Amino acid sequence: MEMEIDSVEYRLSCVLRGHEDDVRGICICGESGIATSSRDRTVRLWVADSDAKHKYSLSKTLAGHTSFVGPLAWIAPSDQFPEGAIVSGGMDTQVLLWNVQTGEIVERMKGHQYQVTGLAVDDNGDIISSSMDCTLRRWRKGQAVEFWEAHSVAVQTVIKLSSGEFLTGSSDSTMKLWRGRTCLHTFTGHSDTVRGLALMPGIGVLSASHDCTVKLWALTGQVLMEMVGHTSLVYSVAAHSSGLVASGSEDRFLKIWKDGVCVQSIEHPGCVWDVKFLENGDVVTACSDGVVRVWTRQNDRLADPQETEAYLDQLSQYKLSRKTVGGLKLTDLPGLEALQVPGTIDGQTMVVREGDNGVAYSWNSKQSQWDKIGEVVDGPDDASNGQVYNGTRYDFVFDVDIGDGLPIRKLPYNRSENPYEVADKWLVKENLPLTFREQVVEFILQNSGQKTFTPDPSFRDPYTGANAYVPGESSFSSGSVAPKPTFKHIPKKGMLLFDTAQFDGILKKITEFNATLASDPDQKALSLSENDLSNLGAVVKVLKDTSHYHSSTISDSDMSLLLRLLKSWPPQMMFPVIDTMRMTVLHPDGATSLLKHTEGQNDLLKEIFEKAVAGPTQPANVLTIIRAVVNLFRASCFRLWLRSNFSEILDALSSCRPAFNKHAHLAYATLLLNYAVLVIELKDGEAQAQVLSAALEMAEDESQDVDSRYRALVAVGSLMLDGAVKSIAIDFDVQSIAKDAKLSKDAKISEVAADIENLIKTK
Length: 763
What we know:
This protein has about 775 residues and is an alpha+beta fold. Helices cover about 30% and strands about 30% of the residues. The strands form 11 sheets. It has a 4-stranded antiparallel sheet, with no helix packed on it.
């Protein structure tokens, strides 16, 4: 009977629609249903339909994360949680505990520096979380009771074993077995990131890896079986008591394995982020098209024919949209109606779309008709390699920046060509000086991966008779600008500032608040004297006259006055004084004077920042303090202070983000962009990773205004290009964020997203 069951293939059982973006995670919630997580920032609970048990309906939508949600864990019903509880982890670095009965957040656990990647629940109710910050954390009643560095790079997943021990998988390509904080064993065998883990009952554990394989391990660390069949990154793996294994991959396939052999592959209209088995043997998949699907081998749980047909049609349309013929997208080809238009010359060729294929025709001028040549197919590498330029396919079509304000030029090149001849012909065609030849040749060799190319010693320059330029030798023309790969919006150089202010309005508001304090007997001592108000007016006059900053002064007593107000005045009255300080630090004397108050144990600036962002949130304080910190980047003397306090600043502002308005979001995005420039200059990899995480969280938020999202994307691209976090960004799923941003109607967001996509493709 078992062989008969195994021979039955999985077919569609039902479709769960509701998420508005990629579905990233699945959690089987016992008899209570299925929980799913998504890039749409929600967790959704689906329960079995009372009328049709194989179908599910949406029961609850849990919204509380500020960025995409990934791992999930289930806590069975208890006295505390009569209907059970769900644990979720997000890119917002938070771990949330949800009461399923009420749909409310019971505990909000903060402590991780970067994205939460894995969750497990211990027998005593403790929650174990893994993160891109390389750590594992144990949470008890909402508080972290211990944490430790589990791997030297990002931890991607964690599972609990029946023995009570824990197993982690990491971007370092290893797995580690933990008893408490003690590593009992390190599993080696994968050649790339270990992305997913699952128990294989009675045998050991399964691992899914970016090396495109699934492995079965004994708990001693021995590889028992390797499953090879996926053609791209494997994100998830699951096992059933029947012995079946399921895996999901970037290659868009759910694969079913039996005894190490792939017995079925089910294609999806997007990458398969997660897979899980139901107890009855059905398989649940989470797809990047925002849909959850359940697959079954039982005839009584099959989807309606109409639903199956709709799925097959969706899959066909998706494949059609991706199909290329001769390097061209099939959907971009003209239809048969194009053959009604006569050709212009004999032998002219045209490719048209016929059904799901591209067919080539040649114009026969004698017969005045298009003759069918045949179906056009891609070669083994055509679909993914090479580019078309002026109707001809090349291995590469480079963007070349000559410099000096000249426009970007296109340089087509095939590996089989002599780069020196290509350079000469291209320079003549573009009417550029031949003194650029050596730089063009080196550019071609470096960017085509031909660093070991050996020039022909018999080659002679057709214009000068000289031998070929050899990369690495001195240039003939030291004044020429070397062509280089170009990006339109990255990297960002220099700092952005908020350098305009309504001084009259600021001074008026300070005067108004001062009068309020003076009229209150309990607060009169906090008010300014007439002399203080006069001095403040003089400071504002100096700040207004920017053309004389080189000769005007801001005294230490002026700065002390501002700091005294910021320290003593009630929080609701701080913002106009913060705004004055924001402009004061742009004056050469202002920054130097303020720095004196940050030295030693008594850092007044840090104290004022903490007061400005303290709860309950005062939106005006938060906006002005972010802008003030942004302006500190103007002064090189503040670089050390900005770096030393950067974690506290970002953590505090991240907590305030739910209360941000449009202007605060823009200020925050500007702060992140300035920090990106700074930590790149400092070559601080740890800080770069933290800025990257915050910027990605903002960049993926499509509700942001254009300028805020653009600046966040520029920060991401700059960190990837000039920093040391490109691989981390890819682990953070920057591809999906760039892909979504590229669809923006705003040109600059679309362009910087294209920059990031191109950067991902470069080695």
